[in-house]
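anyone seen this seq b4? input:
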Amino acid sequence: MINGIYTATSGLLLSYEQQNIYTNNFANLSTSGYKELNAAVVSNDFNDFSSIYIEQIWNKNDIGNFVQTNNPLDFAIASPDCYFVVQGPLGQILTRNSTFYRSNIGTLVDGNGNALLGERGIIRIPDNVSNIQVSNDGVIYADYQEIDKIQIVSINNQQSIKRIELSSSYQIENRDGIRQSNSWILQGYKEQANVDIYNQQIKMLLGLRYSDFLHRIVRMTSDIIQLSTRA
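predicted toks r here
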């Protein structure tokens, strides 16, 4: 019976971890470029009990829907597995976030203040510019003068990057899996999160029921063990 408690407890731990994944997906529904998290579950059979656990958490890298905003500083990448490169406080960061802003020193930054990088370095827009255009191949023009070309990279191996705090940005772990890309950029568009909300709701509901079932098994088994020790 104790082995049954071990098996049920491993199922409960798995259920809690899965619920955290679903919760994070829901929390990022409005995060531009966010990629749905999924979990690969495995089972190990021992002599008297089984254990189930999450072996790997992976991203669903399908492109999210594109929404036209007409904001000249909204840029959407048209290809999957491609990212903008921004300069973070501790190094370069990759992101699918589509929204950028012009800082008070002319740099284009994301919502965290990380500067967008071009092929020549940090992109800066001169003062008093009234028109900013980006061609499909990523060349930025300020009042029809070429400024730089937005740097886009592709990922050959998802193990080369690590998601930062369940956002749409990633830390570079291994540059060997990263290549320059010529993916098209859509100016005035924003990529939405690719979370399948209905599928996540179903998974969350089934997970809650599964968790409740395992709680009942643990309580029932524990009660039986206590009764048997009193006999």
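The first helix runs from residue 2 to 27. The helical segments are 2-27, 197-230. kinda curious what u guys think
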